[in-house]
Design brief:
About 50% of the residues lie in helices and about 15% in strands. The chain is α+β, with helices and mostly antiparallel strands.
């Protein structure tokens, strides 16, 4: 696939294409060939992956870190640009038109979810080729680019599409061979199961490292008790990864199937992200086996896995916020240029122009911090500080960008005729959500 992509890109760079009017057809060929090749790679690897999973100590179950570049450069590769373009086109053509109705009905259309699985193959990105996926190395930056592109279409629908991939990513990063063999094959199809990562709890000043949900050791397993809030697609999910506090050890991640006794799902429509179909999980004496625990064999490994889960989740929310903030900027610029007041465009007023400029400046800072943290994550380097910086920037500036977008539209910003009010509600989630999505 890489050789073919390099040849196609070399052909696309030939200047003679402009002379004969062949630029657009060749670019379209490059895009379609990349997208088709990407899906074919995943499908062709499934039979092979079944054989590889039988090897007990195969290192192929984990994606290797990306080679560290000599220079600080966050320019996406050709493959990343192609994947990003596919996600961008899907967001513009499929997510944006369906966003208003999905927000009203508080659920993502089933047809849209199945179309995203077949056309984008998001679950393939973070799964090694030996396990049936399309990954050859850690893909945190690629995941951030995809999340940003989908967030530009609609954050709520983007969360609904990315929620199952969060579970498959958790299985790849922290699952045992038995867990991967049991659950991953279902995610590598054109109709992956609905699944969700549940971390957030319904209480003020929530700290993901001090959970109220507990996992009490009992016999050869655990008993889970507690409540999880704002879980995407909870009503239709078949599998959950649930964060719970193990007494005397700290928080950890557990696989829980939706039909497990004691697991109750309740509807929980919120201010934003309504298209994601948010729900609440009530865990009442939910019994699971010890084999359902993710994160490694030692307490130190499990603690590090959980910390990485929180950081990668925060980066995913930062990328979604960047995409939605970009949508706000792209919407308000033509609006303030076209809107007339006192015989001239309102963009001629300094207060309006400065507010639009502030959105652009803050957005670039959010994007750079998110990309840098994702780059360090996929290289296997420490990214705790960078993830916190990205989280802080997107929490503060993301909400402000949404508020400014509503302000720039005046009375139009307050009504549903324009999407800015929905983006404002969604952007507030970037500062409070934990888990649900991963990159």
């Amino acid at each position: 696939m890489r050789v073919g992509l390099a040849l196609l890109n070399r052909l696309a760079g030939v200047r003679a294409l402009d002379r004969f009017g062949l630029r657009r057809p060749v670019e379209r060929t490059v895009f379609q060939a990349t997208k088709t090749g990407f899906r074919t790679l995943g499908a062709a690897s499934r039979t092979f992956s079944a054989a590889q999973r039988s090897r007990p100590d195969s290192s192929a179950r984990r994606l290797p870190a990306v080679a560290r570049p000599k220079l600080f450069d966050l320019t996406p590769t050709d493959e990343q640009r192609m994947i990003q373009q596919a996600a961008t086109e899907f967001a513009a053509e499929q997510l944006r038109p369906a966003a208003a109705d999905a927000d009203t009905s508080c659920q993502a259309p089933e047809l849209l979810l199945s179309r995203a699985a077949s056309e984008l193959g998001i679950s393939y990105l973070g799964v090694p080729t030996e396990l049936g996926g399309a990954g050859s190395e850690r893909s945190a930056v690629t995941g951030a680019l995809v999340a940003e592109a989908l967030g530009h279409g609609d954050m709520g629908l983007a969360v609904a599409l990315l929620a199952p991939a969060a579970v498959s990513t958790a299985l790849v990063l922290w699952g045992t061979e038995q867990q991967q063999a049991s659950y991953l094959p279902a995610f590598l199809t054109d109709s992956p199961p609905a699944a969700a990562l549940a971390v957030l709890e319904p209480r003020p000043l929530f700290d993901p490292f001090t959970l109220s949900t507990t996992a009490r050791p009992s016999g050869d397993g655990f008993v889970l008790d507690g409540v999880k809030a704002l879980v995407p697609g909870a009503a239709r999910a078949e599998l959950f990864v649930i964060a719970a506090q193990v007494p005397g050890e700290g928080p950890s991640l557990f696989l829980v199937e939706s039909d497990t006794s004691g697991l109750i799902v309740e509807a929980e429509p919120a201010m934003g992200l309504r298209a994601a179909g948010m729900g609440r999980l009530v865990l009442d004496e939910v019994r699971i086996s010890a084999a359902a625990r993710l994160g490694g064999v030692s307490p130190a490994e499990r603690a590090e896995a959980y910390a990485d889960c929180i950081r990668l989740g925060r980066l995913a929310w930062a990328a979604l916020a960047v995409g939605t903030a970009q949508a706000v900027l792209d919407y308000v610029i033509p609006y303030v240029n076209d809107r007339q007041a006192f015989g001239e465009p309102i963009s001629n007023r300094q207060s309006v122009a400065f507010m639009v400029a502030d959105i652009g400046i803050e957005l670039e800072g959010m994007r750079l911090a998110t990309y840098r943290a994702a780059s360090r994550a996929e290289q296997g380097r420490s990214f705790a500080r960078e993830a916190m910086l990205a989280r802080t920037l997107t929490s503060e500036h993301g909400m402000q960008i949404g508020s400014n977008g509503v302000q720039l539209l005046g009375g139009h910003g307050f009504v549903k005729e324009h999407p800015v009010e929905r983006w404002y509600r969604d952007l507030r989630a970037a500062g409070l959500m934990e888990g649900a999505v991963l990159i």
